[in-house]
From TrEMBL:
<protein>
    <submittedName>
        <fullName>Universal stress protein</fullName>
    </submittedName>
</protein>
<comment type="similarity">
    <text>Belongs to the universal stress protein A family.</text>
</comment>
<feature type="domain" description="UspA">
    <location>
        <begin position="1"/>
        <end position="141"/>
    </location>
</feature>
<dbReference type="InterPro" id="IPR014729">
    <property type="entry name" value="Rossmann-like_a/b/a_fold"/>
</dbReference>
<dbReference type="InterPro" id="IPR006015">
    <property type="entry name" value="Universal_stress_UspA"/>
</dbReference>
<dbReference type="InterPro" id="IPR006016">
    <property type="entry name" value="UspA"/>
</dbReference>
<dbReference type="Pfam" id="PF00582">
    <property type="entry name" value="Usp"/>
</dbReference>
Amino acid sequence: MYNHILVAVDGSQQSEQALAKAIQVAEFHKSSLVIAHIIDLRNVTGAVGFHDSWFVRIENDAKEMLARYKELAEAKGLTKVETVLKSGNPRFLIAEELPKTYHIDLLVTAATGRNRVERLLIGSVAEASVRQAPCDVMIVKNAASE
């Protein structure tokens, strides 16, 4: 039985598939659902042209995405849906901090996300989740690759 489910989203088609699976599992278990997006600033904070208006635009886009996803989950009948928007290291926040903060017993994430080049360089959120999360982890494969 899962009571508290966390799904990591980044706006990619793969993360939307993970969201759909998380909604299904939450429906079945009558669980609460936390939909989380992490703005990864590790590779851009020193970049030329990085300034507040850029971050505000990224943050506003993320808030709109989370609101859409929350609406979708509620339209499927979920009543306990929360969104979380943070900036920082997604590997740490998704795999370690958020599961502890929200008492998560199932973490759902896509096998791949938006940035495949970064995954090759520093590893994926999915990999970190399997290794570090204090709860069960469901990795959702890309439906197009099946």
